Amino acid sequence: MEKRKVALITGVTGQDGSYLAELLLEKGYDVHGTIRRSSVDFRERIAHLEGKPNFHLHYADLGDSMSIIGVIAKVKPTEIYNLAAQSHVQVSFDSPEFTADVDATGVLRVLEAVRLLGLTETCRIYQASTSELYGKVEEVPQNENTPFHPYSPYAVAKQYGFWIVKEYREAYNMFCCSGILFNHESERRGETFVTRKITLAAARIKQGKQDKLYLGNLGSLRDWGYAKDYVECMWLILQNEKPEDFVIATGIQHSVREFCYHAFKRVGIELEFHGEGIDEKGIDKATGNVLVEVSPDFFRPTDVVNLWGDPTKAKAKLGWNPNKTSFEELVNIMVDNDMAKVAAEDASQKVRTNLAEYLEKGIVK
């Protein structure tokens, strides 16, 4: 008899959730996702999945334990992927209490729901942890044994999530694990995140829709991977023989400056960087125009500057390939998507403008 495959994904409307839903549907799962009630529709990343017979959505919120218990009791998942979170580091400084409630206590609500419903023997749980746990890093690169030094309210909340998963694993013999994800991007990344901000700006500047891009620390170092590759590792973690925590990273590090350079290069603009710190500028080599500047508005109260993951354990134990998509390929995918997006927005605006003119002149009634 074929093993029952039922997955519940919290945060299914996000970048990772949408890719994971696609992957699990391809693998024959019944996929259930939680969404929060809102008067605004934020489901564009999963719109193409709605209507599929094995894809189901439920209203629930990590801030509401009763809704979490209700959904888990109804679905009886064999795997839970807890991807829902307040995931923006800068926002966590502005909304620390909300971040703590969702990113810390929200994890506890999921674990406790599984325990209370008597599903500890049949349900495996994946917790989306983060490289921000390492924060003010104590060694590079960072692996599963590197000490944590969280350096933001987001990271502190996520550290509670990491340790409560470990506690439930040891106290109740639950199959629950954390994937310590380093920065992972894609064309579905939110527009407030620095990578998407850069690729959109490159597209808009190329198409004459924006004059300049303002960023924070250009020297910040990150280990950037492709989100579509990383969700495969999430799945592999829950297929492992025993519950363990894994670093999910590429093992290769780049600066924000490098990301800018490759993004603009993709649209045919070669940048040269001059100056240091707050005075550094990215200049178009062909025209001499300043296209990138540093703004103090984008510096954080405490800033993490050197994240670099070591995926050796995931490669060895799970057989995962962290370098399926190269850094340059990732940047190109994102830029190409945003070039098309900006062009489409421009075409749509022209249609609206022409229609308004026709209506004004009485050509169209």
- Compute the number of strand runs: 15
Please count the helical segments: 10
Helix fraction by DSSP (H/I, runs of at least 4) = 40-55%
SS strand fraction: 15-25%
Radius of gyration: 22 Å
Sheet/helix structural class: alpha/beta
Biggest sheet, strands in spatial order? 3-2-1-4-5-6-11
What would the principal axes of the Cα set say about the shape? globular
- Could you report the average pLDDT, rounded to the nearest whole number? 93
Element order, helices and strands? Answer: EHEEHEHHEHEEHEEEHEEHEEEHH
Low-confidence spans:
none
What characterizes the major β-sheet?
Answer: 7 strands, parallel
The end-to-end distance, rounded to whole angstroms, is 63 Å
Break the fold down into its secondary structure elements and pairings.
Layout: E1 6-10, H1 15-26, E2 30-35, E3 55-59, H2 65-75, E4 79-82, H3 89-94, H4 96-116, E5 124-130, H5 153-172, E6 176-181, E7 184-185, H6 194-206, E8 213-215, E9 221-222, E10 225-226, H7 227-239, E11 246-248, E12 254-255, H8 256-266, E13 271-274, E14 281-284, E15 290-294, H9 312-318, H10 327-361
Parallel strand pairs: 1-2, 1-4, 2-3, 4-5, 5-6, 6-11, 7-10, 8-15
Antiparallel strand pairs: 9-12, 13-14, 14-15
Helix pairs in contact: 1-7, 2-4, 4-5, 6-8, 6-10, 8-10
Domain NAD(P)-binding: 8-334
GO molecular function: GDP-mannose 4,6-dehydratase activity
Organism: Xylanibacter muris
